[in-house]
Design goal:
The chain has helices at 3-8, 12-39, 44-68. The chain is mostly helical and 74 residues long.
Length: 74
């Protein structure tokens, strides 16, 4: 089952909870990346992996926000 089909079967309340969880995880990853970069001796591969996870979360957040935001016909 693909991600868009999975989202279409969830209620708005479930999506709102997931959205908050994903936003928190995104924020946590951002803080972890910043901390590793400030340390200066960080592993670049680890930072790249964290940034990739953060980007994946951003995509999930966008999909959920699009689903929750009603289309407005102007």
């Amino acid at each position: 089952m693909n991600a868009s089909a999975d989202i279409s079967m969830k209620t708005d309340e479930v999506l709102k909870v997931e959205l908050e969880v994903f936003r928190r995880q995104h924020r946590d990853l951002d803080e972890a990346i910043t901390a590793l970069q400030e340390r200066g001796t960080s592993d670049q591969l680890t930072i790249r992996r964290l940034k990739k996870q953060k980007l994946g979360l951003k995509d999930k957040i966008s999909v959920i926000e699009d689903r929750l935001t009603p289309d407005i016909i102007a």
